[in-house]
Design a protein that fits this description.
Length: 336
């Protein structure tokens, strides 16, 4: 084991190219290059994302190393996201990481994107005790994870259809809001009445989630009300957004509460891109007080897709001797 473990991490699962340097579990740098080109298409275009990753990856890695005060010769391993995500985007990051690992003759560490979202809660000085529960909410995933150690996790519940982040974005699209619409719903919801319009809560057994029915009820509601009044959305935007957000949040937190009661675990975390939603963060902390939880949420920069969460996961995998060889393949849908 080297005296100091320096890891360069690369994240390229969707439309953000990110690089981070971690030294003995401490994040020294975290750079993210965003791709604004997708806004005019109303969603991420995979081919355009892949091309942008190829343009961004070298300058982003260079910036991360310089900001951390490290050179390539200081590195002990290269960590990268191998799954899940857009396959073309993942291939850019994995190909770069493999080449760098081979040229420097240092270990390669593959990281599952969702495991990294959970372990983003270990970046801050205030860290949850093991075992802890983590509600991970993103555009493509919604899961409740039991984390027994950095390398031992179990999915207790997940969505059986759509993810919560998708429900936010699709609802925003129905309201005529531009992509990405989730943050705009959060913005309008701050000035609205969350009880003005009532949407159903799906009765799914166990700890699994479902959001397809909620999306459908929102669609029918909008269609019916705009037939009565074409200006209904504009007149009621804040209340509609607040009501939509309230229902999605209650679905999430009611399942998390159930998981805590069933497991007896009171160290509870929130992670994933949707954890940046102010309404969710506030409601999560309020429920934590009621349930007497110890609650944890990563900083905003570590909630959305970022390489720091890949770096911290790579660090623990380095300590555990979990390395990959060059045969590892990027995968759009690989399980943990």
């Amino acid at each position: 084991m080297p005296a100091t473990v320096n890891i360069l991490a690369i994240e390229s699962s969707c439309d953000e190219t990110s690089a981070s340097v971690c030294s003995d579990g401490r994040i020294l740098s975290n750079f993210i290059a965003t791709q604004d080109i997708h806004q005019k298409y109303g969603g991420v275009v995979p081919e355009l994302a892949s091309r942008a990753h190829m343009q961004h990856i070298v300058p982003v890695v260079d910036a991360a190393l310089k900001d951390a005060g490290k050179s390539l010769s200081d590195l002990n391993a290269i960590a990268f996201t191998h799954a899940p995500g857009l396959i073309g985007a993942l291939l850019v990051g994995s190909g770069f990481a493999k080449s760098l690992s081979l040229s420097l003759n240092i270990p390669l560490i593959s990281v599952h994107h969702m495991q990294a979202h959970v372990l983003a809660n270990l970046i801050a000085d205030k860290r949850p005790e093991f075992p802890f529960l983590c509600l991970t909410v993103s555009g493509g995933h919604t899961q409740i994870v039991l984390c027994e150690s950095p390398l031992r996790m179990k999915i207790l519940g997940e969505t059986i259809d759509d993810a919560a982040g998708e429900a936010f974005d699709k609802s925003a699209k129905l309201l005529g809001l531009p992509y990405p619409g989730g943050p705009l719903i959060d913005k309008y919801a701050a000035g609205g009445d969350p009880t003005r319009f009532i949407f159903p809560e799906p009765q799914i057994p166990g700890l699994d989630f479902s959001f397809s029915g909620v999306k459908t009820s929102i669609l029918y509601f909008i269609q019916e009300e705009t037939r009565k009044d074409p200006d209904f959305i504009q007149k009621n935007m804040a209340d509609i957004c607040a009501s939509i957000q309230h229902r999605i949040i209650t679905i999430l937190l009611n399942k998390l509460k159930k998981a805590s009661l069933e497991t007896g675990i009171h160290h509870v975390c929130l992670s994933g891109g949707v954890s940046a939603n102010s309404g969710l963060r506030k409601s999560f902390l309020e429920m934590g007080k009621i349930m007497h939880w110890q609650t944890y949420i990563p900083e905003f920069q570590y909630c959305t897709d970022n390489a720091a969460m890949i770096a911290i996961t790579g660090y623990y995998k380095f300590l555990g001797g979990e390395f990959s060889d060059l045969s590892i393949s990027a995968s759009a849908r690989a399980a943990w």
